[in-house]
Amino acid sequence: MAAPTHIALELLNKAHPAETASAIFTEKVLHKPLHLRPTSPDPNSQDARAHRRLQRLRKEQKARRRQRPRPLSAKEKRITGIYEIPKKSQIYEIYVPLYRMWLEYVWEILGMGKGKSNWITPQGAGAMIASADFHGAKLIVVRSKCVSLVGLKGIVVRDTKFTFQIIAKGNKLKSTSKSPVLAEQEAESIVAIPKNYTIFRFQIPQPDAVANIPNAEAKEDISDEAMGANALIFEIHGSSFEHRAIDRATKKFKQRPMPEL
Fold this sequence. Notes:
Elements: H1 7-15, H2 18-30, H3 43-66, H4 74-80, H5 96-110, H6 122-130, E1 138-144, E2 153-159, E3 163-167, H7 180-186, E4 191-194, E5 198-204, H8 207-211, H9 224-227, E6 232-237, H10 245-248
Antiparallel strand pairs: 1-2, 1-5, 2-3, 3-4, 5-6
Helix pairs in contact: 1-2
């Protein structure tokens, strides 16, 4: 019995001459290498794969450690009240040491103090005051488009971009509300004074005058009479101060007319 002919050879014989079909069959079918996948994995390849996976995980962990936390949005800050001062902390006496600390800060930037010249010129002090931080300063409103704010005096507890938030002595704040209910609610809270169209005044006493006050380290306020006649008086235009305290440190101010006031 003759051996059966391969089906591939039969098909090649129909398309090509016998010699050509035999050569193609021998080269393409009989001598074609057959690659078989091993039944068990190569241990070397598995170790390399595990090593690459471990390196990738370590790189991801390192990248997560380098990532900075996402800052809070304005809405999240309002909801959490992160910058709100608690009601129990809205007491004037709490911020008197902050005012004394601010005096030492402004004496330092103006070059005033023991063993230093206390002679201050507007040209030299103007740039320093314009870029200073006013957290803790004692301000008084001398001019404003809102006449109900004139005469309001207190210590700055927050210096925002568009407002000075102050607390008055005795925690009694001048309310701008006409409703007696709202006025009673605002009497024991911190008031925000808009900087726009408002002129503020503050005094800087001489260091020697403050040193002569009894109990200078205690939580006692410094009155205007105790500052003496040699106290430096400054006025700032709030419309030119509509910047955050951190932004004013590097900003150059230009003199501009303010016909609104």
